[in-house]
From TrEMBL:
<dbReference type="GO" id="GO:0006207">
    <property type="term" value="P:'de novo' pyrimidine nucleobase biosynthetic process"/>
</dbReference>
<keyword id="KW-0479">Metal-binding</keyword>
<dbReference type="GO" id="GO:0004151">
    <property type="term" value="F:dihydroorotase activity"/>
</dbReference>
<keyword id="KW-0378">Hydrolase</keyword>
<comment type="function">
    <text>Catalyzes the reversible cyclization of carbamoyl aspartate to dihydroorotate.</text>
</comment>
<dbReference type="GO" id="GO:0046872">
    <property type="term" value="F:metal ion binding"/>
</dbReference>
<keyword id="KW-0665">Pyrimidine biosynthesis</keyword>
<dbReference type="InterPro" id="IPR002195">
    <property type="entry name" value="Dihydroorotase_CS"/>
</dbReference>
<protein>
    <submittedName>
        <fullName>Dihydroorotase</fullName>
    </submittedName>
</protein>
<dbReference type="GO" id="GO:0044205">
    <property type="term" value="P:'de novo' UMP biosynthetic process"/>
</dbReference>
<dbReference type="InterPro" id="IPR004721">
    <property type="entry name" value="DHOdimr"/>
</dbReference>
<dbReference type="InterPro" id="IPR032466">
    <property type="entry name" value="Metal_Hydrolase"/>
</dbReference>
<dbReference type="GO" id="GO:0005737">
    <property type="term" value="C:cytoplasm"/>
</dbReference>
<keyword id="KW-0862">Zinc</keyword>
């Protein structure tokens, strides 16, 4: 049975709060090595990594079928400047926190390499409007309606479209012992915008990331899944 986790440390040995932006780095530096040493046969997936320290560790220690990682579309697309641009952006309020531009660039560098132990993992969180747009904003990015298109846009920007299929459809299933799906989709390079929420059967609105009004403002998605 594999262990899937996003590791962060928020209290140090003196029971003091760590900087929330450093939680993942502290876990990678101290807790994870001890975990792997104690359980050398444990198969581990580090979910939605976002920090330079975690990326450095994975590039050195990652191994197909043994120690793998997933990457979200929003950590590839955005950095901390976006999360606070023009005020706090509720749709980017998530854990792990969106980090600095340098962290995002290292993440892009990693996926550009086409490593077999790196795959897509959306961490999509469909919080209802009442919890997302509140004084105590719920953590989580709802990216499911645009995830494939966002991944494709990033891989296009970094010149790695030839690595996209393995990242999206092969590496993840392989870790869990599944054969990749034989079904295909077609993506076209076409600008479009997210203009509507997802509405549940109960009439509850759920707002996707990159929404034209509730996102950063007039955001444009550069790729689209073909409906033909």
């Amino acid at each position: 049975m594999p262990l899937l986790l996003h590791g962060e440390v928020h209290l140090n040995e003196r029971d003091e709060e760590e900087d929330p932006y450093d939680g993942e780095a502290v876990f990678i530096k101290d807790t994870l090595p001890r975990l792997l040493e104690s359980h050398p046969k444990l198969r581990v997936s580090l979910e939605h990594m976002s920090s330079r320290e975690a990326i450095d560790f994975m590039e050195k220690n990652g191994k197909e079928g043994q120690l793998v990682t997933t990457v979200t579309p929003h950590h590839l697309m955005y950095d901390r400047r976006h999360a606070f641009s023009g005020g706090y952006r509720a749709l980017l309020h998530c854990k792990p926190l969106v980090k600095k531009r340098e962290d995002r660039e290292r993440l892009r560098d990693m996926v550009r390499k086409g490593l077999t132990f790196v795959s897509a993992g959306t961490d999509s969180a469909p919080h209802p409007e009442s919890k997302k747009f509140s004084s105590c904003c719920a953590f989580g990015v709802f990216n499911a309606p645009v995830a494939v298109e966002m991944y494709t846009q990033v891989f296009d920007e970094i010149g790695a479209l030839d690595k996209l299929e393995s990242f999206l459809s092969v590496n993840g299933p392989r870790f869990f012992g599944f054969e990749p799906s034989t079904k295909t989709i077609t993506l076209i390079k076409k600008d479009w915008q997210v203009t509507e929420p997802v509405i549940t059967e109960d009439g509850i609105k759920i707002w996707p990331v990159a929404h034209k009004e509730h996102g950063l403002g007039n955001e444009m998605i550069r790729w689209q899944i073909s409906q033909n």
